[in-house]
Design brief:
257 residues, mainly alpha, 2 domains, 13 helices, globular
């Protein structure tokens, strides 16, 4: 005999994307509640939500033995689409619509220099850490260095130059750690570094690069700054994807063989 729970589960499975929106909405609501009550907003709700998502993805993988986290559980299959590249890229592009281009022009060369400086420093530091932990070939060093730029640049670069799945996974992990550090640390350093206007947000986004980390950190600092930081952080991601499999890979291969 069909029970109410069975009927509800069937409806949720058939409407996977709507279920995913509902589920993510509940997780975000709880995360912001925890952020406000336990940290006074210093640890932004977005950071809590990302941590919660990572834990839930791990649990989903352990329970099902699959590779797509919660999306391997039938009732949460819509999470795979909602968290996929299409919706992610749409969200990143949408942040640019809050930008006033007069402010970008005012930032001038500083924003451009910050982009290149941020990308190259991240690559170099990531490659050095990879070398220190025994990943001494050019492909691994470049891929992990790219992951230190962002967790998007890492797999894009690794796939392009033929890195192993293990190294690509490490690059994603490096990018996630960076994203979390930027997201949680931005409110604490904002006053010290003068992060209180669109121009400084543009430069900050170019230096840090991780769109999710910069957006979350600026949201906890001043929501009006989010579009500016996210704008240059988005350019950073594109620049990293261009330089990683080409300039950075050839440079590292020339040094280590």
């Amino acid at each position: 005999m069909t029970t109410v729970i069975d009927l509800l589960a069937e409806v949720l499975v058939r409407n996977g994307l709507i279920t995913a929106f509902l589920f993510v909405g509940i997780v975000v609501w709880i995360s912001y509640f925890v952020s406000g009550k336990l940290t006074g907003g210093r640890l932004h709700g977005s950071a809590v939500a990302i941590l919660t998502g990572l834990v839930l993805a791990y649990i989903g993988g352990v329970v099902t033995g699959g590779s797509q986290g919660l999306a391997d559980i039938e009732i949460f299959v819509g999470v795979g689409l909602l968290g996929g590249a299409m919706v992610r890229d749409f969200a990143i592009i949408a942040t640019a619509f809050g930008v006033q281009f007069d402010e970008i022009r005012k930032a001038g060369a500083g924003a451009i220099v910050s982009l290149f400086a941020g990308v190259f420093v991240s690559f170099i530091v990531g490659a050095m850490v990879a070398y220190a932990f025994g990943y001494t070939d050019a492909v691994s060093m470049t891929t992990i260095g790219a992951g230190a730029a962002t967790y998007i640049v890492g797999p894009v670069t690794g796939t392009a130059i033929g890195a192993s799945s293990e190294v690509i996974a490490l690059s994603i992990a490096a990018g996630l750690v960076k994203s979390m550090l930027v997201m949680t640390g931005t409110p604490f350093v904002a006053r010290v570094i003068g992060l209180n206007n669109p121009r400084s947000a543009l430069v900050y986004g170019g230096l840090m690069g991780t769109t999710s980390g910069v957006a979350g950190g600026l949201a906890a600092t001043d929501p009006k700054l989010v579009p500016y930081g996210a704008m240059t952080a988005t350019f950073y991601t594109g620049l990293g994807c261009l330089l990683g499999p080409s300039v950075m890979f050839f440079a590292i291969r020339a040094m280590v063989g």
